[in-house]
Amino acid sequence: MRTLRATAYATIGLDAKPSPYTDVVGSIADRACVARGMDGVDAVLHTATLHKPHIAMRSAQAFVDTNVTGTLALLEAAVDAKVGAFVFTSTTSVFGDALVPPPGEPAAWITEDTAPVPKNIYGVTKRAAEDLCELFHRRHGLACIVLRTSRFFPEEDDNPLVSGRYSDGNVKANEFLYRRVDIEDAVDAHVLAIERARSIGFGRYIVSATAPFAADDVAELRSDAPRVVARRCPGYEAEYRRRGWSMFPSIERVYVNERARRELGWRPRWDFRYVVERLRADADPRSALALTVGYKGYG
Fold it and tell me: What's the mean per-residue pLDDT of the chain?
């Protein structure tokens, strides 16, 4: 909403909580509320969701109500309103157990063709919502783009084995190699999806920072990630030594964004090399938008 309101797009923000960027306060599972918000709309950006951290505080039914029933309500209202483009923010969490191969196996090379194996109610409901988008494209001709975003939130890692060993900045820099995207790049992907939806029809895309690796790196990434990173991104070690940081010993998956770059024309700026470049200059490695949005939490 911050980005779109700075452009020529006229916007309507619907959210369960009031904010400077919310025009309609309500739930996406409330069909009457959704219908009111859909009046005159040409494109829908569907970002509303219960997230993985909500699993500890919300019921499975609440996930179904928001992530599945809410998506269905939006899709039906979009068809009724003859909306031209529908963009759904999904998550790489839909891949679930496919992301971590058994011990001794190479790192997983994750593309849109990787079969999802959801491991919790979050992944199950997001995958179900994706399938609803595809169904509405097939049945109603609604142009739908699904964006499977990787980590872009600023909160600390929820794995105590990681957060207890590495500083937060160290963790996030490492993640730009394989599982993180800056929110500014993620927003750019959504804007491009609006523009390309009609010509594409339906598509699923991984939205993650461009990894520096090749598919033939996967075995060594699992056994000796620092060696591969040093080969693909020479010179990062000096900056890490200056900061007292270290590379993860093993990387278990790599998100591949090639299809989004090719078909959406997406050009993400924030990747590991760029982050290291900014660190060398003692600049904040986060984008201006990431700094502005800041921490939102999971209420």
Answer: 95
Q: Two tokens at 5?
A: 């309101």
And the tokens for 34? 């959704």
Give the whole-angstrom CA distance, residue 135 versus residue 143.
11
Query: Do residues 53 and 86 lie in contact, with contact meaning Cβ atoms separated by under 8 Å?
Result: no
Return the H-helix or E-strand segment holding 39.
none
How many angstroms separate the CA atoms of 286 and 24, rounded?
A: 30
Domain layout of the chain by residue ranges: 4-212+253-293
Closest CA to 153 of 119, 188, 186: 186
The string of DSSP codes covering 165-219 is TS-HHHHHHHHTTTTB--HHHHHHHHHHHHHHHHHH-EEEEEE-PPP---GGGHH
Alpha-carbon Rg of the chain, whole angstroms? 20
What are the pLDDT digits (tens) for 143-162?
A: 999 999 999 988 887 788 88
Query: Do residues 133 and 190 lie in contact, with contact meaning Cβ atoms separated by under 8 Å?
Result: no
Contact 67, 50 (CB under 8 A): yes
Cα 219 from Cα 134, distance rounded (Å): 34
- CATH fold of 4-212+253-293, please? Rossmann fold (3.40.50)
Distance in angstroms (rounded) separating the CA atoms of residues 125 and 118 = 9
In the chain, pLDDT over 70 holds for what percent of residues?
Answer: 99
CA-to-CA distance for 58 and 70, rounded, in angstroms?
16
How far is Cα 24 from Cα 77, in angstroms, rounded to an integer?
15
Q: 3-class DSSP state for residue 245?
A: coil
Tell me if 182 sits within 8 A of 270, measured CB to CB.
yes
The amino acid sitting at 137 is H
How many residues does the structure list for the chain?
A: 299
Confidence of residue 298 (pLDDT cuts 50, 70, 90): low
